[in-house]
């Protein structure tokens, strides 16, 4: 799985518990996009989560 190149957000694991209390493993995946961005003045493709895109931590290449 890909990680966000800006904040390092990745997959987190836990246990899903049903109504009858049966337990099974669960994986939460972040919303990560492959984006062309400006990094150190050059256009580069990076993996970025949508929270970093929305907050303006990444400037998209035009």
TrEMBL record:
Protein name per Swiss-Prot or TrEMBL: Large ribosomal subunit protein bL28
UniProt superkingdom: Bacteria
Family, per entry: Belongs to the bacterial ribosomal protein bL28 family.
Pfam families xref list: Ribosomal_L28
Lineage: Bacteria, Bacillati, Bacillota, Clostridia, Candidatus Ornithomonoglobus
GO biological process, one term: translation
Keywords, alphabetical: Ribonucleoprotein, Ribosomal protein
NCBIfam families in the cross-refs: L28
GO cellular component, one term: ribosome
Single GO molecular function: structural constituent of ribosome
Tagged with keyword Ribosomal protein: yes
Classification via InterPro entries: Bacterial_rp_bL28, Ribosomal_bL28, Ribosomal_bL28/bL31-like_sf, Ribosomal_bL28_bact-type, Ribosomal_bL28_sf
């Amino acid at each position: 799985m890909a990680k966000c190149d800006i904040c390092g957000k990745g997959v987190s694991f836990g246990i899903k518990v049903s109504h009858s209390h049966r337990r099974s493993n669960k994986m939460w995946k972040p919303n990560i996009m492959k984006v062309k961005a400006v990094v150190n003045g050059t256009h580069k493709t990076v993996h970025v989560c949508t929270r970093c895109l929305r907050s303006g931590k990444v400037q998209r290449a035009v």
